[in-house]
Design goal:
Keywords: Hydrolase, Magnesium, Metal-binding, Nucleotide metabolism. This is Deoxyuridine 5'-triphosphate nucleotidohydrolase. Its EC number is 3.6.1.23. By secondary structure, the protein is mainly β. About 5% of the residues lie in helices and about 30% in strands. Strands 2-11-6-8 form a 4-stranded antiparallel β-sheet. The chain has a 3-stranded antiparallel β-sheet with strand order 4-9-7. It is globular, with a radius of gyration of 21 Å. The protein starts with 15 loop residues before the first strand and ends with a strand. The N terminus and C terminus are likely disordered.
């Protein structure tokens, strides 16, 4: 059985990667045992308040089948500047071989964020995933939760009885509903 605390040099499985830009650093963990490796920007960029930008990392990976790469924001940057990853977590599928790019957003309302080439902008976490097959059925088993979705568990005074989801139309649905729904 593999030691759950094993590190990259003591028998753990490996992820092959290529530097598409030879000057970018090798993906590394800031501290031994960290889940994520840092990814850096390949260019200087200014992200205006509320804006988003796609930033290259100069890294491509060959993830083993049964794994996924998840792109997470760096917590310090998020806390200090409002920089985050738009589609948190971003998904790198095992079959993808192109450059890892990070879609960043500046959540600060007034201050642009300046990134320099080589700045650490995100983290890549590689995890094993189940690859189930999906089976279409006519009905689903009933549960106590049922159809309760967004906000159905409560727990926050600000939720109150206010509607939480605005219903929009989808192709073939007809016009959008004019009232909000609470699921």
């Amino acid at each position: 059985m593999t030691d759950p605390h094993s590190g990259p040099d003591d028998g753990a499985w490996a992820v092959s990667f290529r530097r598409l830009d030879p000057s970018v650093p090798v993906p590394t963990r800031a501290h031994a045992g960290d889940a994520g490796v840092d990814l850096t920007a390949t260019e200087d960029v200014v992200i205006d308040p509320g804006a988003r930008v796609l930033v290259g990392t100069g890294i491509a990976v060959a993830l083993p089948v049964g794994t996924v790469g998840l792109i997470h924001p760096r917590s310090g940057l998020a806390a200090r500047t409002g920089l985050s990853v738009v589609n948190t977590p971003g998904t790198i599928d095992a079959g993808y071989r192109g450059e890892i790019k990070v879609c960043l957003i500046n959540h600060d309302r007034s201050t642009p964020i300046e990134l320099r080439r080589g700045d650490r902008v995100a983290q890549l976490v590689v995890q094993r995933v189940e690859l189930p097959r999906f089976v279409e059925v006519d009905t689903l088993d009933e549960t106590t939760r049922g159809h309760g979705g967004y906000g159905s568990s409560g727990g926050h005074a600000a939720l109150g009885d206010a509607p939480t989801v605005q219903r929009t139309s989808t192709p073939g649905d007809g016009p959008a509903a004019s009232a909000s729904e609470k699921e």
